[in-house]
Automatic annotation (TrEMBL):
<feature type="signal peptide">
    <location>
        <begin position="1"/>
        <end position="22"/>
    </location>
</feature>
<keyword id="KW-0732">Signal</keyword>
<protein>
    <submittedName>
        <fullName>Uncharacterized protein</fullName>
    </submittedName>
</protein>
Amino acid sequence: MKACIKKFIFSAVLLTSAALFAANEKDKCIYCGSTAYGYCSKSPHKNHEHIADSKHCVYCGSSAYGYCSKSPSQNHKHGHGEGKCVYCGSAAYGYCSKSPAEVHTK
């Protein structure tokens, strides 16, 4: 019984460590590894760009949609997922006023 509990605790610690590592990697710029937002000398568009989920902007970390001062297109761009447009959050297809290409991008 004690051996099973020890194995369970060890497995839980490993999974927690892996999840924390993945979360920390997501919080870093893909060009330089910084956790900051704003200017990035190594980025082609000169802004830090993070790997974000569908709930956060890749340029500033905000959960909002619309204007973003740190974005090259001046609009928040969220990570992909949940079948939503990365520029406006809509599940629709077709025209999108916030997208640089003017179409919903999922």
